[in-house]
Amino acid sequence: MEDGGAGTSSSIAELSHDHLFSILLRLPLESILSFAMTCKKTITLTRSQTLWKSICARDWGQSTTTTTVNAAASSSSSLEVDWYLFYRRLRNLDRVSCFNLLTTTDDDDDDSSSPTPRASHSLNVLSDGCLVLFGGGCEGGRHLDDTWIAYTDKRRMANWQRVTSGVPSGRFGHSCVVIGSCLVLFAGINDSGIRQNDTWIAQQESSKTLSWRLLDVGPVAPPARGAHACCSIDNRRMLIHGGIGLSGTRLGDTWVLCLSENLCFGTWHETLSHPVPSPRSGHTLTCIGGSRTVLFGGRGMGYEVLNDIWYFDSSEEEWVQVLFELRNIPGGLSLARVGHSATLIPGGRVLIYGGEDSYRHRKDDFWLLDISQRRVWRRLKCEGYQPRSRSFHRASADESGCYLYVFGGMVDGILQPAEPAGLRFDGELFLVDLLV
Amino acid sequence: MTSSKTIVLRSSDGATFEVDEAVALHSLMIKHRIETGGADSTTIDVPEVTGNTLSKVIEYCKKHVEAPNSDDLKSFDTDFVKVDQAVLCHLAKASYYMNIKGLLDLSSKTIADMFKGKTVEQIRETFHIKNDFTPEEEEELRKENSWNLFV
After folding, report:
1. Cβ separation of B151 and A5 shorter than 8 Å?
2. Whole-prediction pTM value?
3. Regarding beta strands A157-165 and A102-105, do their DSSP bridges make them parallel or antiparallel, or are they unpaired?
4. What's the whole-number mean pLDDT along residues A233-259?
5. CA-derived radius of gyration, chain A
């Protein structure tokens, strides 16, 4: 950088690169890009991989950045990650790519089959990349009580293994979330129509076993329910909202579960605030960080499909509605959804997929929701394998947040003379890749 | 009674400043020099910093070491960085070299605030950066670097 005229020189040029980068890291993206464009030297300087790797860690999190480094190092091409492009692609995410995973099972397993096609089950990804599937409903309205795990090979193949059966008891419409290193399962409904309010906890004992035990929660627990929304809000707490209760009516209550440090017991408490989202079921809760958990959609008391967005502030324990002018968003007016999936992706954003709309049509679209200052609601293109439209499927992201696994759900049936029209359960496992 | 040992700091242009050891130790770089320099380290050279800047840095360290709990520390800091961009950058550079965390944070934050909300041209003006692009190059650059505006 040269003299700016009148004998004054640019002192900022005297700072070392590391020092300058530490200042740039305090700035929003637009200021970094504006600084970059001031002169030839700054343009070159701000293309530094060191700088953009730090910006990625700042905005996408250390977990995403570290797993990306590891993936690049172990890939066959072993290309260095271009952090500038990586940042830009994730920032302006406008498409996803899907891949159907080849699934196999252990040959010496007696029940050598993949998990039965099902819906309203639970699917989680543990920190070592292990997929865990439990329960759900299948053909004939029957409940399932089996636990399956799978490890994926380069995200193109998965090897399912049945781990246990019978415990917890069979159910669908339950919730299951990862809290720290364990899974916490709550409530659900069985095929006799009985709704529960029990809480279960599971820990991985080895790469092939997982065991469930009933969690002691003391005398206070939320009323029994199914099809509620749930998510973990930090290493120790879980949030639930609504669902369908004992008498078949839709609930609108909010509860928080706090686990003890040794994970041996938990305490539930109800949060009371005003205003609150209306009673509903088949909606989603997604923790986006910064004490905020996003609630979207669902089916209300009058069976109408909802499109409202709220967030729960877990430090104030209150709900705040987020308003979007849907008219101005392409496809926005069709955005009411129930039985969709909502998954956290880097940058505190939510990826919403599938579900049913107000006309009972199953959807196959992907939407990006950002409730930060930028306020984005954007339909994403889908490349590669086109998954069938579905609802009441489950989706869960791996540690990087850039790869989502989706399993099951109800899909449109193939109309053939011998087959019942309309509905069928799906048993495929596919991957949604954000880094196209 | 606290020890009243003093240290002499010598700037790049030969100016010397006598300061209490406690004040000098606020710079981790000087602290390291003293601890590894042996008994004769009563004069420390600071060749990366001019006398003008060093005098200001010492003023900062004095205030923070002698009156760390005073009520006017915040307003002292605010006024301390109300200087032109050249002095501010020299202070930042000195705090980085001399490893004075408080001053480094303060100066970095102040410089960062001077970028916020400014256009490319305004940043050039503030920091006296000469625009060495042709109008065509600038237009190309603007197109290529406006991807943050994607909604």
Report:
1. no
2. 0.89
3. parallel
4. 95
5. 23
